[in-house]
Structures are given as structure tokens and as C-alpha cells.
Amino acid sequence: MIFGLILAGGVGSRMGADKPKQYLEIGDKPIIVHTIERFIEYESFEKIIVLCPDEWIGYTRDIIKDKCENKKAADIEIITGGDSRNETIMNGIAYIEEHYGVDDDTIIVTHDAARPFINNRIISENVGKTLEYGAATTAIPAVDTILDCNNGVIENIPDRSSMYQCQTPQTFHAKQLRELYFSLTDSERGILTDASKILVLSGKKVAIVNGERTNIKITYKEDMIFAESIAKQIFSIRSATCS
């Protein structure tokens, strides 16, 4: 079985808004609703699960009901996330274990709620690469020079040709990810910046799926300008396709 986990635990402190960024609107819809609608288009999900802070569960349920145009949104589960990204994913796996069971073939596709321009191609390739390699993460080649710095001073300039910028989805076999996560020490868990590092620290392969420049994570105020522009282009393309 394949499950979609939409991670909606961000508080949006860098956005400076009065609510978490995933609930801000682009094109008259909350960002998280755009993300959910794209996930619904991938028809192989057994269930889509949204994980958010407990105090936002009711609000999330209401906006999905009011704003999501796809009737399948009524089947989405909304549960409480954790104190960190990886704890949130573990909560998702625990929920799947309780309600559906988890075995060696159970796959989870984890994605940022604040990346609303995900598409079916990226999700499908994530699942395919995970079946082939065991895990996958979405990334795009770095176009800028990357500086490795310490205390504001450059220590190293890596070869850009081998550098990638990580996006999401990140896709895993749920059982393996959970076992590897709980096998790490507290200090190892403390340096985790994303779930794929759980496998990297354990010597496992994580395949790269080519992302897209439009698969942006909305983090800063100026990102909303880019997002509105991308949303208009997507709406224009979809309208032309349907006409």
C-alpha cells in the first residue's frame, strides 16, 4: 500500500503572518488545499493523511471541506503531528500501523504542505525509484555556487556539478524508515535535517528524482509573489487543456 503524508506542522515564523504559511491563500485557495488537490490526482494512494498541530486540526478540516473542489477530499485523514519533522513522520507511520498495518511493502510519500505545485509525475517517479532503490528524494541541480562556511568565513567551495537542492516529496518504505530512525542515537537524531538523512546515516541508498523549479517551498513573503504567478500559469494551462 502507498500512503501520502502531507506535513503541515510549520508555524511560518519567517513569513511574519498571523497564521501558519500553509493556510495563507494563493489564487483564492489556501496553500495546503492546492497541495492536497495535487496529491488527490495520484490515484494509487490508499489514503492521504495530513499531519498538523492539534490546535489546527478543526480549522484544517473546515478549509478542506469549504475550499477543496475534489470530492475525494472528504476521505482525507487529519491527525496530530509531532514536535519535529521526523517525529511527525513517525506519528504518520504509527497511525498507518494502527489503522491499516505496516509491512515491508508499505510506502509513504512525505511532502511539505507549503509546496503546492507538486505534480503527478514527481509523485509517480518517487514511488518508482523507491521500489527500485528502497528510498527516493526529490531534488534539483544547484545553479549557484555552494559555500561551506564556519562563523561567517568560507572553509570550502564544493564542486557544484555534484550539488543538489533538496525538495519534497521524499519517499520511503515505512517499516524500514521507522526501524532505522529508532536505531539512531539521540545525538544522531539531533542533526537530522530531513528524513532521507536517516537512511544516509545508516548506509542505505536514496535515489534522486528530478524536481522542478516551480516546486517551490513557500517560506518568505516574496515567495507569495512567485506562487501567485505560478498558480496563474498553471490555471491558464489547465483551462486551455480542458477547453
Number of strands: 11
Number of domains: 1
CATH superfamily: Spore Coat Polysaccharide Biosynthesis Protein SpsA, Chain A
C-alpha end-to-end distance: 35 Å
Report the structural category.
alpha/beta
As a percent range, the share of helical residues equals: 25-40%
How would you state the average pLDDT, rounded?
92
Main sheet? 7 strands, mixed
Number of helical elements:
8
Q: Approximately what portion of the residues adopt beta-strand conformation?
A: 15-25%
Q: Which segments are poorly predicted (pLDDT under 50) over 5 or more consecutive residues?
A: none
Please give the order of strands in the largest beta sheet.
5-4-1-6-10-7-11
Structural overview:
By secondary structure, the protein is α/β, with parallel strands linked by helices. It has a single domain (2-242), classed as Spore Coat Polysaccharide Biosynthesis Protein SpsA, Chain A (Alpha-Beta Complex). It is 38% helix and 23% strand. It contains 8 helices and 11 strands. Strands 5-4-1-6-10-7-11 form a 7-stranded mixed sheet, with helices on both faces. 35% of the residues are buried. The mean pLDDT is 92. This is Multifunctional fusion protein. It comes from Butyribacter intestini. Keywords: Cell wall biogenesis/degradation, Isoprene biosynthesis, Nucleotidyltransferase, Teichoic acid biosynthesis, Transferase.
